[in-house]
Write a structure and sequence with these properties.
The chain is mainly α. The protein contains six helices and two strands; from the N terminus they run H-E-H-E-H-H-H-H. The longest helix is centred in the middle third of the chain and has 18 residues.
Length: about 150
């Protein structure tokens, strides 16, 4: 099992990254064990446990779809880097106007890459939806969030 903690791409309030070493020390897993993560969130604990078999679940379908597309190979690190660099440049130029354009686009199409962009550029990485199931977190006012050093 690795010592370094993998930090997943999705940012979640209450992420357990700092608890991973403690959890890793106190959980014994054999090769037949099934890791069950009923409230996946970012997935930081389950991913870092490196189980042979796992079940990840969450009530947020956008988180599930994002990781499903990674599993299917439709989202790769190079795709994410290219997407965030392009959208980040537009964010630098358009600031909040671009953020809200992407938020509107996401609320219509539910594209997982737009979800990642919003998660990284919204206020405090919050994930919140209104009663109409529209992402409604305001802009985080950090237009350089996706500069080369931050990708």
């Amino acid at each position: 099992m690795k010592e370094k903690t993998f930090v997943p791409p999705i940012k979640i309030q209450g992420i357990k990254t700092k608890l991973v070493p403690l959890i890793r020390q106190n959980i014994l897993m054999n090769k037949e064990a099934v890791w069950i993560e009923p409230f996946m969130g970012s997935g930081v604990v389950g991913f870092n446990m490196e189980p042979s078999h796992a079940i990840f679940a969450d009530t947020n379908p956008h988180i599930i779809e994002f990781y499903r597309q990674i599993k299917q190979g439709r989202i790769t690190p190079s795709i994410v880097k290219s997407f965030l660099a392009r959208e980040g440049k537009l964010l630098e130029e358009g600031d909040d106007k671009h953020y809200y354009a992407v938020r509107n686009r996401f609320n219509e199409s539910h594209d997982p890459l737009d979800f990642l962009f919003l998660n990284r550029s919204c206020f405090n990485g919050m994930i919140r939806f209104n009663k109409d199931n529209e992402f409604n977190v305001p802009y985080g006012h950090k237009p350089l969030r996706f500069s080369k050093g931050n990708l």
